[in-house]
Amino acid sequence: MIVDTQLPTNELFPVTNHAQPVLRWAGSKRRITPILSAYAPPKYERYFEPFVGSGALFFCLRPPLAFIGDVNPEVTSTYQALKDAPSQVAQHLTEIPKTKDAYLLLRQLRPADLTTAQRAARLIFLMKSCFNGVYRTNASGQFNVPFGSTIYKLPTSEELQSVSDALKLTQVRTGDYKSWLDIAGVGDFIYLDPPYSCSSRYRGEYGYDAIFGDVQLEELLTCCKALQNRGAKVMLSYKNNKQVVNALKDWRILNLAVPRSVNANSMGRTPAAEILAMNY
Ligand SMILES: C[S@@+](CC[C@H](N)C(=O)[O-])C[C@H]1O[C@@H](n2cnc3c(N)ncnc32)[C@H](O)[C@@H]1O
Fold this sequence. Notes:
Layout: H1 33-39, E1 46-49, H2 56-61, E2 66-70, H3 73-84, H4 86-95, H5 100-108, H6 116-129, H7 157-166, E3 170-174, H8 178-181, E4 188-192, H9 214-229, E5 233-239, H10 242-247, E6 252-258, E7 272-278
Parallel strand pairs: 1-2, 1-4, 2-3, 4-5
Antiparallel strand pairs: 5-7, 6-7
Helix pairs in contact: 3-6, 3-7, 4-6, 4-7, 5-6
């Protein structure tokens, strides 16, 4: 294992025109995008990010041709709405009163009863206002995170337009990460940032449909090897975990101390020990 704190310069793929992520998201890689982007391959044809969440790396790199996805349909429909109709999303966002009452009202609405632009504005507002930027639902899919202490700054219409531009040649899909990876191979770069594995159904970080346990982790590692055999370049973020390090021992592995944005129980806000594993 390599322990490395020095950033390489990535001159062939300069990060100059990045867009800001619009979703506040627990587990976002926003604070370490300089490291992630520096270790991204200098050249690739297509970019895949199937656990996209707030898409910190995607919006930093702004790859010209990309495939993004998430099991959470609110996330993916937000990106689809921003891709297709950023000004409508901006309009709905400005109409929302910046109050706790508005938060509680929006939280109760059923996304299926809204247009895609309203749905996107709702998610952006909820995530900017909820406790710790956590997306969590109850057993019937109802968003149930309490109001946080602040309503963070909402994106401007220019920022939403810039996100829309970044999504122009991007295909967005709802569902399990594997559904995108079947088509990945030579010339592709895949960034994988799954949830940390946990065995309790109730401690899933991203809602009931996004539980990622030991079985899913094993499947993910098998998938990493299959991608490698097909000639794809893969970068995986994960907590520092023996199972992962052993399975990928022929990969380049960096240790990272990642600042937490979410106060995970007794762990407080001490940095999380993560790894970045790359097969290139
Ligand atoms: C650690 S977060 C990704 C954070 C992202 N890198 C960012 O910068 O915001 C993991 C994401 O994976 C999604 N997810 C969980 N299980 C999944 C699955 N089986 N397939 C696809 N997405 C999944 C969650 O909804 C969550 O958005």
